[in-house]
Structures
1.
Amino acid sequence: MAVRRRNVRLATGADSMLLVAPTQVGTASLYANGNNLLLLPPAADTLYELTPTNWHLLFNRYLSGCPTLVQSDPEVLRIRFSEVNVRQMLARYNQCLAPGWKNATTYTSMWRQSFGLQIAPMRIVSSQTYRAPGTSATGWGGQLGLEWIHTRASGLQITLSGGYLYLPLTTPSYTVTGPSNQPAEERFRVQSNLATVGVSLGKRLGRPQRPNLYGGLGVGFNYRFHERTTYQLRTSTSGGDFQDSFSLSDAGGITLHFNAVVGVLLPISNRQEVRLAAEYRNYSYNNISSIGLQLAYCWMHK
């Protein structure tokens, strides 16, 4: 039985078309959407979201006809809400109505695929010393890229990403000896252009069609396809802007980065959502780290 879109009556009373997967099929069946359990009563077309506060009520309302399992029995009402207990109660009910019943469903979880477009402005800091003690560099950069997202029924999420990464750094000015042995100010600038790919493992918490919390950890590889390093000079007598003293260009080399993300997922429709998150990265070269904002638009494929 395939994952497909079906009408679900949410715990709020609203109806929503959601992607669901069967996990236990019988006279009464159990489905999953994200980390939510859904009941399909006998001879019904609508699924019902099960929660700790409504599951006994729904079972009592829809699962009748079994003399050995009375849903309003005090002993039954003392059973706590959990996936294991829900499965056991449904199995007892199905076996009561059809003694030869066995759950043959192999879908114990489901994956949902989404595609995303991401933009991530970031503040970059390098603690590496450039030319003079204490001259660490800072700058504003960012990433623009695409994402391929796989979300499991439990809320586990794997994201594959790729895109363009821009890392500019500029040091504060420092005093050097300029032309004609005159004191001058110098600063160092580097602009790195990289292609980046990464994978992250995260977890989303929340109900379908509502804002979800999200957190994840990831690792990425960066290929430097162009980097320009420039030394700029300004004499104390000339004032004005810094002028390029000399520059170097370089390319090649693969580096590594690690990142952590925490934020929220905001639904737009049944198949679209926006992610707004804070991100920290640490790069394996030049003692570079960054903190920034992730803004992503995600479209569900299936």
2.
Amino acid sequence: MTHPCRPIYILLDDPRVLRVTLVILRKKGFVDLNLGQVLCQNLLDVPPLRRSTLASEEVQRIVRPIRQPLFIWGIDALFQRELSLNVPQLIDRVARRTPTTVVAWPGYLANSMISYAAPGHSDHRTWPASGITFLTDPREIPGNP
């Protein structure tokens, strides 16, 4: 079992997984947050050169009022190179604020590494997967039925 403050990642290898996960987690009382969409809207009027310095702080501001279990999805925007975010580290900080945090990971898990985008793609990035809990079935996520 994961530490209460560590996020649970669910792999999005099929678009249907997101739809099913949203339904299941809403029934379990999770708040769902399309973080990428909200972040982009909030940074729209910020000059591009300042976005990287404000992005992490803005994510924290977005999640600060949320005290319920949280399902974060739509995080592709967080991987924009101009933002210079360490996405797993940022998600770890967000997870400290909620009882349970589940993240829809739009990437891959292989060889003890998590990645975003395929190797060779300009957005490809990797991080160590140590300490990260991955699930493939949203029914395994703890919460009220």
3.
Amino acid sequence: MRETIPDDYPHQLNLEEVRNLASKYANNATRVSKAGNVSLGATYWHQMSELGQTEISLRNQLELNEILKKLKKKTRKVD
């Protein structure tokens, strides 16, 4: 069975789905790079893995920014 990338990958998936797929794609890149008969090369799966990792980093950064905004508001109220 041929591996497919979800149409909504990675932006519309929840964080756990992105993590799982990025890990799966990284494993595919490793596995495919060892194979003699390759239909989708390691570069393709590596790129899909990187895309997922970038999405995870972006979401984490956005979450941290929201936390910092809330802390800033609390600090202003205390002063």
